[in-house]
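Exercise 7.
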Amino acid sequence: MSLRQMEYFLAVVEESSFTRAADALHVTQPALSHQVKALERSVGGALLERLPRGVRLTPMGRAFLPHAQLAVRSARQAERAARAAAGVAGGELHVATVHALAVGLLPGIAARWRALHPGVSLVLREYGSTDALEEQLERGVADLAVGPEPAQWTGPLLRIGREELVIVVPFDDPLAGRGAVRLAELADRDWIRCAMEPLADGVLVLDRACGAVGFTPRTVLRTEHTSTAVRMAAAGVGVVMAPAHMVRGAVGEDCVLLSLDPPWHRPLAVFSRVPLTGAAGAFAELFGARAAAVPAAGARQD
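Solution. The predicted structure, written as tokens, is:
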């Protein structure tokens, strides 16, 4: 089998039609059908069921699909990595990350990247959880990932600093004049919970920490995105825990950030399936320098 055959197979699956896939690939339909049939002969059975209107995967096709997707993505990633390592002034760098970092740190880094490397465009892929981020990187959807340091990662990994998790309250909150708060002081508060909260060993970090000091957070609102949760907290709906850099990126100076006593920090890393060289290495270095310059929650920003 060949990479081209797998690309043709994936196009038919995506379009659910040989005709539309041929148009998308700019090839004739007979040529496309010939390549797909050759692929089916090489794997020993039908991958697609031809229907009067469209196609659908056979059981063998469903088993083959994720491996074909990974092979095609890996080939494209290998080409980008080779071009970057060879110093080609062009192309794309695919970066996967979690939503909080995309909102909090990446805008400034992307702007700096454009100034330093105008010939290499960025393709950003955002995920709602670290589990999804790691899973998608394993599948080859990006050249590298930026996020909380994975508990287990067998590929290249570069530690680039840490982020502080803080409590967000509105300006008129009784705690607004303080720089830090103990978690136990928030036992009687209403909480905003987010689907993107960090996990440790499959348990939400906030639930575990609150339980350790004797209470269960009283949830009054749940949301998908951390940026939405922060805006709700700034409006006075309840308190929320979020990365300090993300809060500044989401709502700027419209709320108060309180460090936890003792402080909560989470290590950040750039990690990849292949060595961080060329454009990927340059991006990792730039991100590390930016992350190290992020001020603490109570620090003044000029």
